From TrEMBL:
This is 6-carboxy-5,6,7,8-tetrahydropterin synthase. It catalyses: 7,8-dihydroneopterin 3'-triphosphate + H2O = 6-carboxy-5,6,7,8-tetrahydropterin + triphosphate + acetaldehyde + 2 H(+). Gene3D superfamilies: 6-pyruvoyl tetrahydropterin synthase/QueD. Pfam families: PTPS. Belongs to the PTPS family. QueD subfamily. InterPro entries: 6-PTP_synth/QueD, 6-PTP_synth/QueD_sf. It comes from the Bacteria. Pathway: Purine metabolism; 7-cyano-7-deazaguanine biosynthesis. The lineage of its organism: Bacteria, Pseudomonadati, Planctomycetota, Planctomycetia, Pirellulales. Its EC number is 4.1.2.50.
Amino acid sequence: MIIQKQYKFYAAHRNEELEDKCRNLHGHRYGITCFFEVERTGSLSTLFGDFDRKIEPFLKSEYDHGMMVNINDTLYETLMNHVLRTGEKLKLKRFSQPTTVENLAHQLFTEITDMGFRLSCLEVRETDTSVVSYTREDWVTDSRYFANSKTADTESLSK
């Protein structure tokens, strides 16, 4: 059985790999739709509040009104120098890859799965007209890709 839940948060990011408007720091009202696989245990499977109690506070503390930033982006070093120089606290959600909606989908799928939920799909809405539908198969494939990338990076650094 599938239970569908929707959440939202506001966050800034940029895609430093592009040479268009998205290279600039900007923000979105992200919407995510989780498709949870659940098993019936009697008259119900899972209370909707069981999802909300874990996911809503997590999104609020980690993402909402913060900035997603790739730690390999030159902007990250600038932000960290600003924090050290001024003592100002910035809400930064660190990524080891560019903060594309595809990479955000992978990150969220991983974090929600780590909470103990089983997702079949996660939709991430970046704008009113742009949605990524990210499946468990996508997540498995990307997890292997990112693991292999880290291994290759580590091997090249040790040479």
